[in-house]
């Protein structure tokens, strides 16, 4: 079955991830003496939510709060958004409630794929072409992302031109020497270098001064600024492995950290994280997951840490239809839930394939798959399954939502804020910022500026490119 506007060969690969076969970037064992003294990850949880795992029964902004298309900050000018087949002007994604398409949600900025604009097929199969107006718990479908949005994903941090590791090491040394610390000099260097360049600065510092840059920084900094700087100086694979270890050691488990990392990374990233976890901490990640979690959530995470998801970018629409039927029969179409069927499909299918399955499910069940998951599951396994579906539909929107709820309300979940800004800064933080503005009608920079202070705020804003 063909869908208008989809590239015939399926979805393009997700740029920004290391190419297949690339050597692991984490260092040999013993090169990181600092994790033991690293400040504990604060709180570890998002603000408490109602019965659903996400704030506000799904956590998505309530439908109907958006201006008409073209009125979002940073949205394409009128005429710049892609056209939707067979839909009158003013309808489609982002239309006021009651219009066709997913009500109440902005569409991510259009980006070109090949020679023409991306086109997104409208969900069909509803009486009069309308999506059901009410979803359990008031939850509307997750904002969808055009197939072409994975083209040209980009980070806010790019490698510096004319990079000189020894010169940077000297600047950092001067900034920390003597009385006081020149935090601005540290911000200027750290925020404008890529992760690989920061590793070279660290090596140059030890070569030039016979001292460990990380230990020196730890002695000069404290609190959130220290956590942010140390996260920036960890290689990305090591930082993910460290975050997982930190989420499971000691009393209690930070399930949301496990979900955020294991349910969103590529196969290669997960396999490198598993190897790094073993080499740096002398522990088996799967065993730690088994001892810290249980039930269907444990099974989902064990599936994730195999790093065996299908990554073929071509979509099989026949399979999507069959999977949608299976999921309906495993949940809404029976008494009780066949959890293993959900686990099997959501853990093995590629993200583009799952996106097609979500669209097929809307026609089969006359209901959105995310709302079905909310009805059939609860707690951490619900959050994990939703995260996988959200990444299939619109990965930047998933991280935008996480960032929003790390700062919304009283207090700030700084560890989540730091982790997402650092880990996405060289992958898709540009798209996350654009999507954030559309979903919440304010910029990510504005929210960070009002929720943080001092050098910590300066460094965060420099990384997000504000």
Look at the helices and sheets and give the structural class.
Answer: mainly alpha
Number of alpha- plus pi-helical segments: 20
What is the overall pLDDT average?
Answer: 77
Low-confidence stretches: 1-140, 147-151
The major pleated sheet works out as: 2 strands, antiparallel
Distance between the termini: 44 Å
Percent helix, as a range, is 40-55%
Fraction of residues in β-strands: under 5%
N to C succession of SSEs? HEEHHHHHHHHHHHHHHHHHHH
Apparent shape: elongated
Compute the CA-based radius of gyration.
22 Å
Number of strands: 2
Spatial order of the strands forming the largest sheet: 1-2
Give me the secondary-structure topology.
Blueprint: H1 55-58, E1 112-113, E2 116-117, H2 165-176, H3 183-190, H4 195-209, H5 213-220, H6 223-233, H7 236-248, H8 255-262, H9 267-281, H10 285-292, H11 295-304, H12 317-330, H13 339-348, H14 351-365, H15 369-376, H16 379-407, H17 414-424, H18 429-440, H19 444-451, H20 454-464
Helix pairs in contact: 2-3, 2-4, 3-20, 5-6, 6-17, 7-8, 7-9, 8-16, 10-11, 11-13, 11-16, 12-13, 12-14, 14-16, 15-16, 16-17, 16-18, 16-19, 19-20
Outline the structure in words.
With 466 residues, the protein is mainly α. Helix content is 49%, strand content 1%. It is built from 20 helices and two strands. Helix 2 runs antiparallel to helix 3 (183-190) and helix 11 (295-304) packs parallel to helix 13 (339-348). The longest helix is centred in the last third of the chain and has 29 residues, at 379-407.
């Amino acid at each position: 079955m063909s869908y208008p506007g989809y590239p015939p060969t399926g979805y393009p690969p997700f740029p920004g991830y290391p190419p297949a076969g690339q050597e692991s970037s984490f260092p040999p064992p013993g090169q990181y003496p600092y994790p033991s003294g690293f400040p504990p990850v604060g709180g570890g949880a998002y603000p408490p939510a109602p019965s659903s795992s996400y704030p506000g029964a799904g956590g998505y902004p309530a439908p109907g709060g958006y201006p008409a298309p073209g009125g979002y900050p940073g949205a394409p000018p009128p005429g710049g958004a892609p056209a939707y087949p067979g839909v009158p002007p003013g309808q489609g994604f982002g239309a006021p409630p009651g219009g066709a398409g997913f009500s109440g949600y902005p569409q991510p900025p259009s980006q070109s794929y090949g020679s023409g604009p991306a086109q997104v097929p409208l969900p069909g199969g509803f009486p009069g072409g309308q999506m059901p107006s009410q979803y359990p718990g008031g939850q509307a479908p997750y904002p969808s992302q055009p197939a072409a949005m994975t083209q040209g994903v980009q980070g806010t941090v790019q490698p510096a031109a004319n990079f000189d590791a020894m010169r940077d090491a000297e600047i950092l040394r001067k900034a920390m020497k003597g009385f006081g610390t020149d935090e601005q000099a540290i911000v200027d260097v750290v925020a404008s270098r890529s992760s690989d360049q920061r590793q070279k600065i660290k090596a140059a510092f030890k070569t030039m001064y016979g001292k460990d840059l990380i230990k020196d920084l730890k002695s000069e900094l404290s609190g959130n600024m220290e956590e942010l700087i140390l996260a920036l100086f960890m290689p990305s694979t090591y930082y993910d492995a460290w975050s997982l270890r930190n989420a499971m050691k000691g009393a209690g488990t930070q399930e949301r950290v496990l979900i955020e990392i294991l349910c969103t990374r590529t196969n290669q990233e997960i396999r490198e994280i598993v190897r790094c976890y073993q080499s740096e901490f002398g522990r088996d990640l799967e065993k730690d997951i088994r001892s810290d979690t249980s039930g269907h959530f444990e099974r989902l995470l064990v599936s994730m840490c195999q790093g065996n998801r299908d990554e073929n970018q071509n979509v099989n629409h026949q399979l999507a239809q069959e999977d949608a039927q299976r999921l309906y029969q495993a949940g809404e179409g029976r008494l009780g839930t066949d959890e293993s069927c959900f686990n099997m499909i959501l853990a093995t299918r590629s993200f583009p394939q799952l996106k097609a399955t979500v669209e097929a499910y809307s026609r089969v069940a006359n209901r959105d798959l995310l709302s079905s998951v909310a009805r059939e599951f609860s707690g951490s396994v619900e959050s994990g399954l939703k995260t996988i579906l959200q990444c299939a539909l619109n990965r930047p929107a998933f991280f935008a939502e996480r960032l929003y709820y790390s700062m919304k309300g009283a207090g700030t979940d700084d560890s989540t804020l730091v982790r997402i800004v650092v880990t996405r800064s060289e992958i898709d933080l540009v798209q996350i910022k654009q999507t954030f503005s559309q979903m919440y009608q304010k910029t990510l920079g504005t929210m960070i500026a009002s929720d943080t202070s001092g050098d910590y705020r300066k460094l965060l804003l420099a990384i997000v490119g504000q």
